Please model this.
Amino acid sequence: MLDLRKINFPKLSEVAFDRDGIRKDYLRNKGEIAVKNLKKNNFEAHYCDSKEEARQLLLSLIPDDCTIGCGDSHTIFALELEEGLENKNCVVIPHSCAVNNCGYETNRSDYVIVGTKEESREILMQYLVANVFLLGANAITIDGQIINVDGNGNRVAGGIYGSDRIIVIAGANKIVKDVASGIERVHFEAAQMNNIKYSCKLPCVEHGICVNCAKEKRICNITSIIHKKPTDSDYHVIIIGDELGF
Model:
């Protein structure tokens, strides 16, 4: 009978595969497929293997001396664009300034008050017709559709029409099977994390799943699904082979 104790078995750690490498290859594969299909849908689509590569590409797509509207996106924040944009002499309007009309009306601490209420509206108008509009994506389908859900509407509005160039940036972790899966991702994952970010104790955070609440601070009021590139638009999508954003 075979004596197993006399066999010099390898340690479990020695037979384990490179989980991080496998995950990276998985994200790259999904990202490249989505980019191919985004191009079929007439978007200017790009795959970048790292945040550093994406930062350089994004800065190359932004002209000098321009005005930039920036939607709420932790993927964009993770690219650390400030120095590059300052060197290009660009003016960046953050999402919190563009929707601060809500701050005047509700005293919410998560909006930055800039100027008077009348000036706030003027900022919003400039935000929506900036030279470049940057935003993330709540989900991108593998067949090349872009899904975003918004509370106030400024982010989805800027991501559809108005600016000379629109650029969507997303980690490959946002890629989903289809539109239904994308909306489910928003309700089951993205919205809850954003509510935690804003310290909004809404029912989805309490129950762990969307219950289609009617709370005043609900952030899932407007859904945008861009099936194909909007006509005559200059529309770019950058997918990064990393897990980024919510």
